[in-house]
Amino acid sequence: MKLGIVGLGRMGGNMTERLRQGGHEVETYARTAPERTADSLVELSMKLQQPRVMWLMIPSGHPTEMAFQTLLGLLEDGDVLVDGGNSNFRDSIRRAEEAKKKGVSFLDVGVSGGIWGLAEGYCIMVGGDRSAYETAEPVFATLAPEGGYAHVGPSGAGHFVKMVHNGIEYGLMQAYAEGFELLREVEGYDLDLDQISALWQHGSVVRSWLLELLQRAFEADPGLEQIRGVVQDSGEGRWTVHEAIDAAVPLPAISAALFARFASRQEESFAAKVNAALRNQFGGHAVEAVAGAEEAKPAE
What we know:
By secondary structure, the protein is of the alpha/beta class. Helix content is 49%, strand content 12%. The chain has helices spanning 10-21, 41-46, 62-72, 89-101, 117-120, 130-143, 157-185, 193-199, 209-220, 236-247, 252-264, 270-283, and strands at residues 2-6, 25-29, 53-56, 80-83, 105-112, 123-127, 149-153. The chain has a seven-stranded mixed β-sheet, sandwiched between helices. The longest helix has 29 residues, at 157-185. The radius of gyration is 20 Å and the shape is elongated.
C-alpha cells in the first residue's frame, strides 16, 4: 500500500526502508532529511490518495502536537493518522477525540525494536478504532516479525502498553547493571564480564536480547572505559511511576530503576556504565564519552 511517513530519524528512516523492502510505496517528509520525497506536510498529503495513511515518527510533545494539528487540517474523512512515537497515552486519547470530530481516525502505536528493527522487525502495539487498524494492518504486518503486532485496545491503549513496556525495560536494565557491577567489584576473582555475558545466553534463565547486546558492548570495550556512567531517561519511566501512584500499584523495582538513572547524573558507577552501554546498543542513544575517548557506537 501507499502511505506517508513524517520523520526520518533512527527509527523513522529504518522503518521507511523496511516498508519499501516489503513492497510498500512510502512518501516521506522530514525538515532536515535530504532523502525526503516531499518538502512540506501539504505536499506530502497531496501525494497520497484516500483513504490516506499518515504515520508520525517524531519526538513526543511539542513536535508531535504541531504535526498533528497541521495534518488534521489537511486530512479528510476516512483518512488514518498514526502516531508511532512515545507520546503520553493521555495526549493520544485527546488527539483521537479531536481527530474523530473531523472524520479522521487516529491510531496510537507503541513501537519497540530500536536501531535493530530494520533487520529484526518491530514490536507494534496499536490502540484506537479497529476499522482504522485494519486499514493500516498491511503496514504493521510488514514492520513486525511473525506474531509481533496486535490491536491492544481503544485509543490510548497502544501508548499505555508501550509506556509500561519501557518501565519494565528500565527495571531489567538496572538488574543487569547492578549484577555486573557486583561481578566486577568482588575481590579475588577478576571475572571476565564478556565471557560471563556470553555464557549466560545459553540455557540461563536470565538470557535475553538485552544480555546479548550487553555482551556486544563488553566485546567492544571490556571495561566500558570509553563512556561515562550517565544514564538519561526519555520520559516513559516517569509516566509509568506517575500512573502507578495514581492507581496505587506498587512498582518498587521500576521506581528504583528510574531513581538510579537520576543518581547516575550525580556520581560515577560501573552499573551506570552498563545501563548507558545498553541504551547505546539497542537504541543508538548517545552516551557521554570519557574525556579524550572516541564516541561509543552500537555494535554492527
